[in-house]
Amino acid sequence: MNPPQEDPDREPSPPLWRHLLAMVYDSLLILPLFMAAAALWVSVWGPTENALVQTVPPVVQWLSWGIILLLFFGLFWRKNGQTLGMQAWRLKLISEDGKQPTWPQVATRLLVATLSLTACGLGFIWKWMPPRYRYWHDTLSRTRLILVPKRD
């Protein structure tokens, strides 16, 4: 099930499956960064005696993961509009005016995409809803994914 055809003067919108596979690829790069942050905090606060006792404050762990996500996606998207997963699946993020996304757009997109996922993927399903046929995070961050043509 694909959304209706977009304006022919604009770049094609990629199918959802490409976006999801790029997300899986990028998660394989982000998870080791999360683990390194957890290891750093455990070295600061000390190990725990059992799984029920937390030594690292949860707010510290969540904030560090948020910073990791912001830096990971922000640096890639601000540099060339693509993470490594997006490069593998020929996706590119651009702002509505066709330029590289700004830091506020990156932060908004990450926050809303996270909310989209926690709402059982509703923000992703929105791609099939008229009139704009866009993800929540595309609409609110004023960005969009495009499909990069194959190289010769």
Q: Any key phrases for this structure?
A:
mainly alpha; two-stranded antiparallel ribbon; 152 residues; 6 helices; 7% strand; disordered N terminus; 2 strands; single chain
Q: How would you sum up the major sheet?
A: 2 strands, antiparallel
Tally of alpha and pi helices: 6
Pattern of helices and strands: HHHEHHHE
What is the averaged pLDDT score?
88
- How many DSSP-defined strands? 2
Class inferred from helices and paired strands: mainly alpha
Contiguous low-pLDDT stretches (5 residues minimum) are 1-9
Distance between the termini: 29 Å
Total domains? 1
Give structural notes.
With 152 residues, the chain is mainly α. It has one domain (16-147). The chain is built from six helices and two strands. It has helices spanning 16-45, 58-80, 84-88, 103-118, 122-125, 136-141, and strands at 91-95, 143-147. A two-stranded antiparallel sheet has the order 1-2. α1 packs across α2 and α2 (58-80) packs across α4. The two termini are 29 Å apart. The model is unreliable at 1-9 (pLDDT under 50).
